[in-house]
């Protein structure tokens, strides 16, 4: 090693030893993470793959989805390591991908088009699901109970591709309002690049929201065992109605949605504080989203949401009187033993987004935590710690982003990744024949680059084990908010 190479490394070690702010990751590292986290979505695609598909071990799948019901439901995403298309997490994934581009697309450089393509793969499907039949939204393709009894490639699926829908007779306000949010947020992404498509997305969002609001009820009650316990709407549907209205208001500027928020907010959870943000519970995200109006325009009607956004932020910050978050010994936010990183990436996204909103206030906005205040810089510092932990700055020294760094999970709980590619082994692998690959100790033959897995436990322990789905399964809604956070730090972090 040349002496000129050693000097910067020694200098970095010296800085770190004196506990000065120090990061092992540069803007190039974060940009690489951004690139990979978007690429992951190509591995989750259902339908006819395009000629520019980059994860070439995948093939076409689900090409007859919906046909037996006389609707076209080809496309969209498989949610995680299985072969079901669940509407609620897919819509939330789409909303968060769109929000990532809306806030941080300017930092995505040559990845912006790939991010738009990832969004469009979903919105094309959601448009089909929302417009195939009047007053109906198709919300799921595939029987999850049957699917989970098989271990097979999506290209080989022979389990029932049942189609499930919500309607005026069988309401699903939660999934419909989240779909409306996804379409509305995405309309902003395509407003300049494809205005006709953007208008179609927004108009469909309004129709789907009307279905959600007019026929109120939870899709868990209407569809029961086909969505529970997989994506049961534990938080109910009030949070999605407020979230959906907020996104349509932001996308359209239509005052009727502002009036809806003002007249229904208190009923739909505006006064509630919740301390997690996920595919199920949108309350914290809505507070941050609506706080933008107060912070940037000084619109008094949004002041309530700024106060509740502060409460959320304060709950994450040690040393404040309302601190209540749990962190692992290594510093990772810990919310639950199953797929914990979904809460980490969504929280990190809200931290950097709220930091951006606070900083947009010319008076130097801060979060108020009783007698103390939290600066935007503290928010981004906490977010950065979470991102760096995911990328490998953790006690196990492993990256939880597949394909990033020298050490990452090799045995992820994912059917397509763990079975031989259809291009390598074109012979059909039946439902039960695939389990030999699930139980194999060999690394997955196909690297699902960019997948963020469920992550470690509350003591920072991680098992790279295909059977431990709680820790080793990736999901679209883990990756979606990370896209925005990675873009933010790729622009904000100086090169060491």
UniProtKB/TrEMBL annotation:
InterPro entries per the UniProt record, alphabetical: 6-hairpin_glycosidase_sf, 6hp_glycosidase-like_sf, Glyco_hydro_9, Glyco_hydro_9_Asp/Glu_AS, Glyco_hydro_9_His_AS
Short name of one Pfam family: Glyco_hydro_9
Signal peptide range: 1-24
Keywords of the record: Carbohydrate metabolism, Cellulose degradation, Glycosidase, Hydrolase, Polysaccharide degradation, Signal
Matches recorded under Gene3D superfamilies: 1.50.10.10
Enzyme class of the recorded protein, top EC level: hydrolase
Active site per UniProt: 413, 464, 473
GO BP annotation list: cellulose catabolic process
GO molecular function, one term: cellulase activity
Superkingdom in the source lineage: Eukaryota
Catalysed reactions listed for this entry: Endohydrolysis of (1->4)-beta-D-glucosidic linkages in cellulose, lichenin and cereal beta-D-glucans
Domain Glycoside hydrolase family span(s) in chain numbering: 30-485
EC number(s) on file: 3.2.1.4
UniProt record similarity statement: Belongs to the glycosyl hydrolase 9 (cellulase E) family.
Protein's recorded name: Endoglucanase
Organism (species): Quillaja saponaria
């Amino acid at each position: 090693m040349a002496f000129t190479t050693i000097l910067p490394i020694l200098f970095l070690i010296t800085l770190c030893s004196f506990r000065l702010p120090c990061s092992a990751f540069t803007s190039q590292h974060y940009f690489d993470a951004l690139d990979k986290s978007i690429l992951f979505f190509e591995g989750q695609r259902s339908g006819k793959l395009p000629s520019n598909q980059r994860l070439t071990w995948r093939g076409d799948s689900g090409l007859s989805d919906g046909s037996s019901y006389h609707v076209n439901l080809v496309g969209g995403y498989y949610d995680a390591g299985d072969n079901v298309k669940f509407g609620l997490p897919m819509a939330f994934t789409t909303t968060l991908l769109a929000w990532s581009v809306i806030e941080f697309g300017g930092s995505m450089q040559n990845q912006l088009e790939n991010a738009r393509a990832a969004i469009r793969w979903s919105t094309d499907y959601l448009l089909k699901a929302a417009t195939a039949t009047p007053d109906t939204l198709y919300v799921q393709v595939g029987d999850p109970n049957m699917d989970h009894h098989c271990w097979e490639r999506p290209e080989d699926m022979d389990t029932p591709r049942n189609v499930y829908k919500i309607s005026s007779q069988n309401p699903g306000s939660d999934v419909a309002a989240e779909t409306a949010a996804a379409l509305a947020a995405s309309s902003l992404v395509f407003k300049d690049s494809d205005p006709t498509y953007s208008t179609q997305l927004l108009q469909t969002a309004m129709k789907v929201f009307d279905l959600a609001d007019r026929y109120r009820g939870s899709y868990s009650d209407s569809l029961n065992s086909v969505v529970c316990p997989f994506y049961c709407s534990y938080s109910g549907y009030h949070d999605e109605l407020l979230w959906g209205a907020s996104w349509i208001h932001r996308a359209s500027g239509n005052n009727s949605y502002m009036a809806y928020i003002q007249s229904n907010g208190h009923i739909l959870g505006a006064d509630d504080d919740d301390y997690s943000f996920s595919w199920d519970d949108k309350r914290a995200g809505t507070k941050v989203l609506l706080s933008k109006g107060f912070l940037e325009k000084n619109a008094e009607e949004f002041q309530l949401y700024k106060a509740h956004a502060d409460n959320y932020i304060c709950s994450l910050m040690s040393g404040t009187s309302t601190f209540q978050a749990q962190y692992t010994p290594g510093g990772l936010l810990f919310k639950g033993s199953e797929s914990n990183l979904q809460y980490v990436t969504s929280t990190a996204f809200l931290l950097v987004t709220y930091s951006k909103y606070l900083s947009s206030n010319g008076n130097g906005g801060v979060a108020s935590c009783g007698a103390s205040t939290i600066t935007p810089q503290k928010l981004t510092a906490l977010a950065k710690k979470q991102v760096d932990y995911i990328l490998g700055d953790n006690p196990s020294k492993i990256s939880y982003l597949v394909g990033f760094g020298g050490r990452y999970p090799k045995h992820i709980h994912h059917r397509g990744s763990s079975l031989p590619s259809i291009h390598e082994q074109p012979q059909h692998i039946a439902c039960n024949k695939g389990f030999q690959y699930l139980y194999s100790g060999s690394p997955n033959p196909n690297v699902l680059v960019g997948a963020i897995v469920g992550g470690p436990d509350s003591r920072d322990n991680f098992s790279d084990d295909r059977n431990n789905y709680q820790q080793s399964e990736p999901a679209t809604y883990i990756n979606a908010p990370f896209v925005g956070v990675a873009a933010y730090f790729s622009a904000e972090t100086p090169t060491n």
